[in-house]
Design brief:
202 residues; alpha+beta; five-stranded antiparallel beta sheet; 3 helices; 7 strands
Length: 202
């Protein structure tokens, strides 16, 4: 394909060849960049409290970070309530979301890929929608078995149970995680899908 370009040195225009392949490659690269990335971030749970398992490895708290070229950064996780919902609703699990800021003190980053047949944009959108539908203030946030243990008791959940359950509700399974040097209590005990099907209580 011929393209007319202006030559400032001669003051004349000239024809040059332009390859349509390079244009297509740029378009594909832009389209790929536009797809959001979804990453599991692991931090020490509740600051110093996460080291209560010593001499065993410290516990991780998981968050999902969605990095979208169009809408920016969205971070989602589960947190126990404090005073904001009244004394009666303290230490109950709620959806926690914050935008355009990344978690600090991250020890583990695990890329998440969507299930087969689902685009990364759809994957990100479904995660956000399911988090919005989570029944906040409906389940207590519990400590691992024996406080410093690596697992939760049956039927008890924590912030990692929330993230595992959220991903399970979208993906149809809980992704396996490898976290050498850290414990992940709650990941083995995802919150059941029914918690993510109703409108969240605000």
């Amino acid at each position: 394909m011929k393209v007319r370009e202006f030559d400032a040195a001669s003051g004349q225009s000239k024809s040059t060849d332009s390859s349509p392949v390079s244009t297509a490659s740029t378009t594909v690269a832009q389209a790929q960049h536009a797809e959001p990335t979804i990453t599991l971030y692991g931090r020490i749970a509740a600051g110093p409290v996460g080291y209560v398992s010593w001499p065993d490895p410290p516990d991780l708290h998981f968050s999902i970070l969605i990095d979208d070229a169009y809408s920016g950064i969205t971070v989602l996780d589960g947190q126990p309530t404090m005073w904001e919902a009244g004394l009666r609703n303290m230490a109950l699990i709620k959806t926690n979301r914050y935008d355009n800021a990344t978690p600090s003190g991250v020890r583990v980053r695990i890329p998440l890929e969507p299930p087969a047949g689902m685009s990364r944009r759809e994957f990100a959108q479904r995660i956000i929608v399911r988090s919005q539908k989570f029944a906040s203030y409906a389940a207590p946030c519990s400590a691992p078995k024996n406080i410093g243990g690596s697992r939760m008791r049956p039927g008890e959940y924590n912030s990692s149970s929330y993230v595992a359950g959220l991903l399970d509700s979208v993906m149809g399974h809980v992704p396996s995680v490898s976290t050498p040097g850290f414990q992940t209590p709650g990941w083995e005990n995802p919150m059941p899908g029914h918690f993510f099907k109703g409108e969240a209580i605000r």
